[in-house]
Amino acid sequence: MDFILKDWEFKPGVAQARLIQARDGRQVIQLRIDLGLLQLETTGRPDGARPHGHATFFEHLREQARLSKKAEGSFTLSDEQCQDADREFLQFYHRRMCWLALRQYPRAIKDADHTLAFMDFVKRHAPNEDYLNAHEQYRGFVLFQRTQAAAALAVENETPQKAIEEIHAGLDRLREFFASYEREEDLEESGMVQHLRHVEASLRQQFKIGPTLQEQLQQAIADEDYERAARLRDKMKENE
Q: With 70 as the cut, is the pLDDT of residue 240 above it?
């Protein structure tokens, strides 16, 4: 491994990832870290494991929860299950960072959605508030990265107005997250929100974008111009 690391200098603060072909022909991701590198699978679980025969540990836990419900019992994560869940959260975090660095935006979105769904599961089945909060504190960051990926994908697909709509949708989800902790007044001070606002402003300037359909609809409703609002709703449905 020495020759690999010598030719790939570590840069602090930068996500350094690459896709390579393994000896058996499959693609794998390599992530450069301070003391070496991590190698991750591109599909399924990043470590390539199949916990209890399932594609992910999350899928295994969902099956356990279904069985408990079928037996008319409640399901709560055990200490061991919490530790295994933490491992999977960390693995998907690393791979999500890689996908963003590699500009593989659909894959970044998919991994973010896995993490958000897993967080929802933990919210329902956590053994205590401490464990729940240990994960919920990162929900805003995952929402932020998902929004970044969705907006970047829209720009890549030459639909910059769609990118702005994705940013607005992400901001709405972040607003809900802040409100759930009664911190809505801190929203605009968040570095994540400020970054998304900056990206939106840059896109509007670069592509000369006026108000989005959603913004036009909101203005039409505020002006009580309901005929225009109806036309805008129809247009939004056509674009879905």
A: no
